[in-house]
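Treating backbone geometry as a discrete language has practical consequences that deserve illustration. In the encoding step, the backbone of a single protein was reduced to a row of integers, each denoting a local shape. The amino acid sequence and the backbone structure tokens for this protein are reproduced below.
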Amino acid sequence: MLDRLVRPLVRTQIQLLAQTQSANSRLTGMVSQWLGYLGVEAKVTQLNTEQVKIQISLAVFKPEQCSVHELGQILTNIEQNTEARSNGVHELIYDEMSQAQRGKVHRLLASVIQAGDKNAVQSWDSLQPQLAAMGMNEMMLVNIKSAIKVPTMLDSLLEDLEPEVAAYVLSKAISITLIDKEINQDEDTVLKSIYGALESKTRV
């Protein structure tokens, strides 16, 4: 539904950009306006072109639904993450997870896929390349395919799920649900459950 509302607006804005010589100021205004729809105040600080890409730098202010405490924690996390990267520390990836946590990842993502496609086993051949494009390796895909054939209770999968693994799953789950550019009720329920598990484990 959302894409049906937004796409005509985006198409109109593209036509305006193509027809005006003041594309810079119009584009910076458009970006701020689009983010404003989400309750996020942002200002474009830099705008450049590189071959067929447009590079934009943003200064993002406190979102409307973000408390001062949450903003402070976000800034702290970003600073810590930046420092960790400079010291050679990186985020948890699939290959670094324990076997038990990987098993949960396979079954949780299988649950997400099943929520969006009840005939996922039959449509696997068309789905697999799209999952591979999300960075899922061959072994992970084999395990997800197997998990799709054996539905598992969601609550049991979320028990003892490590925070970093939950964040990893949520990121992949969102990408999966957006393959068809729509999120149905079942997908929404699964996403909320995963997010709820992540929030409960990271709550201060």
About this structure: Residues 68-86 form the longest helix (19 residues). The CA atoms of residues 116 and 180 lie 9 Å apart.
